[in-house]
Amino acid sequence: MHEFKFRDGELYCEDVPIQRIATEVGTPAYVYSRTTLRDHYRGLEEAFSDLPHLICYSIKANSNLAVLSTLAAEGAGADIVSGGELYRALSVGIPAAKIVYAGIGKTEDEMAYALNSRILMFNAESTTELGVLDRVAGEVGVKASIALRVNPDVDAQTHPYIATGLKEAKFGIGIDDAMAVYEYAASLPNVEVVGVHQHIGSQITQVAPFRESLSIVGELVKRLQAKGIAIRYINIGGGFGIPYRQEKVPYPRDYARELEPILRQSGCTVILEIGRMIVGNAGILLTKVLYRKSTGDKGFLVVDAAMNDLIRPSLYGSFHEIAPVMSEERERETVDVVGPVCESGDFLARDRELPRTEPGELLAVMSAGAYAFTMSSNYNSRRRAAEVMVDGDRFGVVRKRETYDDLVRGEIAWD
Ligand code: LLP
């Protein structure tokens, strides 16, 4: 469900015509729907309401402060992966006691920052990291609460770049080593073991891989408890998939229904680190057709957004629906939708059948709320796009389009 809908042949976000945003803000621009964000968050909250739980929004999916403040107001916690994400979370008032910190390469500075902020816990990913965390915690004088990220070796059946739960992945601690690493963690003076964490991948479109991995994790929790290592939190990670082309995917309640028995039995508080399911379909990338061209038999639409704005099609071969903002009847054609960047890999869609559009017309690239702006870059010295938030009949720029000055900020023409 989302709030990008056609009314009388014109695309709206909530009660704002997309065309108006383009006129006032220009293109390319990301447009987010605050109502959709809230609805998605509340859907998850409701689905898991029968269990003690905490939803930690995964900031890497979309870290704009307006997105974060919207979710903070709903009571969300945060899943962070860097000092920068911690800074963002704290600056919109997400309580430190609702922040969990994952990642295989936390630096000592980042550890100290998180300890001093009194975050809920670190999701530790290796024995060496634990050793460093113990020392830093001793220096800072704050005990580090931790979960170990275990790798249950299940196939999440998603794109190989975003599957993380197989044993060849760089993430987590192999399930067979977990017991020993837990014992080591429990022996450290400045570390307190509080939980177990898994994250098996992203854009997972079935419940089964979660069921499989959680039954493995559930067994581990029992064994730990038998050894006197009290586990209070099970963090099931993120990864709930969304429809990119109207395919059927499980709803939050489907996950809750199927996973509840295992989770309830553990007696633990459940943490969910959801990114994409909250923001993915709450955003679009708005772009303008610059030129039409053809080479040989192939037709191209050259648009003003590029791989530097949205890299998912180039990097993962991801599909994003594309629709003209004005939807009147027109002939259809098959084209590649490409950006101005000097790379053949710069495309938003390939061999896509679309209604014929002319230079100057607007296109909406759908499902662009997650891993879109956050993965953007300045490649080709392109200024990053503006971001806009819509709420009912209001909208506001929540990140200004970069200027040429922004582009060179911090650089020195050294001689
Ligand atoms: N927790 C951890 C430890 C993660 O690494 C991630 C995502 C999440 C939670 C949130 O997963 P989600 O609910 O959003 O699926 N750039 C890729 C996705 C990379 C996901 C990285 N980790 C894409 O555009 O599809």
Structure description:
There is one protein chain. By secondary structure, the chain is α/β, with parallel strands linked by helices. It has two domains: 4-32 and 280-408, Lyase, Ornithine Decarboxylase, Chain A, domain 1; 34-279, Alanine racemase (TIM Barrel), CATH 3.20.20.10. Helix content is 30%, strand content 27%. The protein has twelve helices and 21 strands. It has helices at 18-25, 34-47, 65-74, 83-91, 108-117, 127-140, 178-187, 208-226, 252-266, 276-279, 312-316, 404-408; strands at 4-7, 10-13, 16-17, 29-33, 53-58, 77-80, 99-101, 121-124, 144-151, 173-174, 191-197, 233-235, 269-272, 283-295, 298-303, 322-324, 332-338, 347-355, 362-365, 386-391, 394-399. The strands form three sheets. Strands 4, 14, 15, 16, 17, 18, 19, 20 and 21 form a nine-stranded mixed β-sheet that branches. An eight-stranded parallel barrel has the order 5-6-7-8-9-11-12-13, surrounded by four helices. It has a three-stranded antiparallel β-sheet with strand order 1-2-3. The protein is globular. The chain starts with a strand and ends in a 7-residue tail after the last helix. The relative contact order is 0.16. The mean pLDDT is 96. The structure holds ligand LLP. Ligand LLP is lined by residues 58, 60-61, 79, 102, 162, 199, 202-203, 237-240, 273-277, 312, 316, 371. Residues 58, 60-61, 79, 102, 162, 199, 202-203, 237-240, 273-277, 312, 316, 371 line the site of ligand LLP.
Please name the defining characteristics of this protein.
globular, eight-stranded parallel barrel, nine-stranded mixed β-sheet, Lyase, Ornithine Decarboxylase, Chain A, domain 1, binds ligand LLP, 30% helix, alpha/beta
